[in-house]
Specification:
This is ATPase. InterPro entries: START-like_dom_sf, START_2. This protein is α+β, with helices and mostly antiparallel strands. The protein is built from three helices and seven strands. Strand 4 and strand 5 form a beta hairpin. The termini are far apart.
Length: 137
Amino acid sequence: MALPDIQSKTRFVVEYPINASPKILFPYLATASGLSQWFCDDVRYVEGQRLNFIWDNDNHYAEISGQRLNKAVRFVFLDEQRQSVPDANFLEFTLDSSQVTDEVYLRVIDYSAPHDPREQHEMWEGLVSKLREQVGG
C-alpha cells in the first residue's frame, strides 16, 4: 500500500520598506485589479471572497480568509475543485508603520511547498520592485 504524498510546507517571511501610505498601498495588496498590476498575470473575482490568480494561463483559486483595512490580508489557496484543504498554502501581506521613522513596511508571508530560498527571495524582490513602480515608492 502506497503512503499518501505528504509534502511539507515552509513559511517564507520577508519585509520590504515601501515609500507609500498604507491607504495607497492596500488596494494593490487586497483587490483583484491591484494585484493584477504587479503580482501575477491576472486576478479575477470568482464569488464572494474568492479570487482566481492566473499565472502562465494556470488558474489558482484562493479565498480571502482575513482582512483588516489598510493593515493586512490573507489569501488561502483552494484545491482544483475550489474547496478548502487542511494545511493549505497561503499568502499574507501585512503593512506596518514605524512611529519613529514614519516608514511603511510590507511583510510577506508565503506558506507553501519548499522552494530554493535564494530563488524565492529573488522572485519576491522582483515582485515588490514592480509594486514600488506602481505606487511610486
